[in-house]
Amino acid sequence: MSNSITAVAGLDADQTRQGAAAAPVLDLAFHRDDSDYLVTQDPTVEIRRIRKNGYSLSNVKALSRRGVMWLGQTCNLRCYFCYFIDKIKNAHHPEHAFMSFEKAKELCLKVREVYGNTAIDIQGGEPSICPYIYDLIRYCNEIGLKPTLITNALWYDKPKNVEKLVSAGVFDLLISIHGIGETYDKIVGVPGGSARQMKALELLQQAGVAFRFNTTLCRETLPELRQVAETAVRFGARAVNYIAFNPFVDQSTRRPEEQIPRYSDQAKMLLPVIDYLDANEIEVNIRYMPFCVFPESHRKFVQNFQQIIYDLHEWETESELWSGGGDNRVSAAPCPPLFSIDDRLAELRPRAGGGAGEAFYVPELGPVDHFSEREYRTKEYRVLQTRFMHPYTKEKECHGCALTGICDGFHRDYAKVIGFGEAHPESGPVVHDPRHYQRHQMKVVEDQEADWAFAGASVVSPQS
């Protein structure tokens, strides 16, 4: 393992596995295992650990090993900011219907056996209404994947449905809660939806089902951020993610200006909520917003694409590239061929002016101490992703900022309409380490992940 990356990593670290013996049920072109996910902790940072019931809170840094799958864009809600709203509304879209159970199993098996993932987020649309969902949860457990449902949880307002969920062996839920009461009902297009969701939370808590929250930062939700946080404390959520209203997928050309809250307004309303959740020892993440709109004291909670690779509840980059690409989301199509992160980098590097042997061909790339080859390749991909795959932009305010090496910048449509007036460039040398602020954030590490997440880490101040 290299302590400082000074050249672009190719396939060197993996070449010994090319042509290796295939797993019993798969013809593997490559295979990731525990060694691929080993990282080195920064020796200058004290690693803390607070033990909880079934998990710990810690600032240890480990690469996520969580996969993701989209069963189909069939849903019981109509959230206007949904990335897949057009596919959900169109029953004839190739991605609308739920895929077959056999395809779902094949996808899960490859995520586990090829990419070495140990957990998986199962989403739809709405996975709780998929007819084979409990069989899929059982299958995930059989092959060594901790199954999580990304869900609105309305289906679990009835005890019998919660009993089925528990019996199948779900690990936890990531529940989308975009407001309280009438605000939620209006956003999702279902009268009485919030009441059903609150009932579901009560039943899930009683049944001992762990869960976390996702909340989209739209204009209607901003005044209720504190109420969402209080709901998390009341029902014992382990983490709360406040997610920018992103112009991704179906939202890429449809966001009107009046629906886009300003970054500075969001930050102002988030600061006391962050403090409240942090004081209650609930992990809190602010996803996909510029660092510079937050004071330095709160930047450890800001998670751009480079930071989420160290969130054990976020998606491992290489497997997501495969499971979310090709025909994997097309209901009636077979799973596409496997590919690696190196395959995708080979496509993107020339577009950014990079070539063989060129290590730092864009300003965001540079040497990072205590960085593995895999960490560098993943950072490189995340940098190129925001240039060519997700609609971000950086202007002169960003180019002179010390944080340009770890920040995604502004959403492109936001910058076009509102501009960069809220940007506050930081002076100093460019920071390239995505863990720069995040290394001080306490995040959830499930007991099932502790062995490899804490591998090689010296916890010098254990707490209980």
Question: Can I get a quick summary?
Answer:
With 464 residues, the chain is an alpha/beta fold. It contains 14 helices and 14 strands.
Describe the protein.
Helices cover 29% and strands 14% of the residues. It starts with 46 loop residues before the first strand and ends with a strand. The protein has an 8-stranded parallel beta sheet with strand order 3-4-5-6-7-8-9-10. A 4-stranded mixed beta sheet has the order 13-2-1-14, with no helix packed on it. α2 runs parallel beside α3, α7 (225-235) runs parallel beside α8 (263-279) and α10 (341-348) packs across α11. It has a single domain, classed as TIM Barrel, CATH 3.20.20.70. The protein has helices at 85-89, 101-113, 133-143, 159-168, 182-188, 193-207, 225-235, 263-279, 317-323, 341-348, 373-388, 396-399, 412-417, 450-453, and strands at residues 47-51, 55-58, 66-70, 119-123, 146-151, 172-176, 210-217, 239-244, 283-287, 302-303, 392-393, 410-411, 443-446, 459-463. The chain is globular. α4 links the parallel β5 and β6 (172-176). The protein is an alpha/beta fold and 464 residues long.
Q: Which CATH architecture?
A: Alpha-Beta Barrel
Give the helices and strands as they follow along the chain.
EEEHHEHEHEHHEHEHEEHHHEHEHEHE
Reading side by side through the largest sheet, how are the strands ordered? 3-4-5-6-7-8-9-10
Mean pLDDT: 89
Structural class: alpha/beta
Name the CATH homologous superfamily.
Aldolase class I
Oligomeric state of this protein: single chain
Tell me how many strands there are: 14
Morphology:
globular
The first-to-last residue Cα distance is 32 Å
| Rg on CA atoms, Å | 21 Å
Annotated CATH topology: TIM Barrel
Tell me about the largest β-sheet.
8 strands, parallel
CATH top level class name? Alpha Beta
| Count of DSSP H/I helices | 14
Low-confidence stretches: 1-25
Strand content is 5-15%
